[in-house]
Amino acid sequence: MKTVGIILLILLVILYVVVLPLAKKRYQQKQLVDMQSFLNELSVGDQVMMNSGIIGKINRIDEHIVHLKVATDTIIRVDKHSLIGRYNEEK
Question: What tens digit of pLDDT does each residue of 4-31 get?
Answer without folding.
Answer: 888 999 988 888 888 888 889 999 999 9
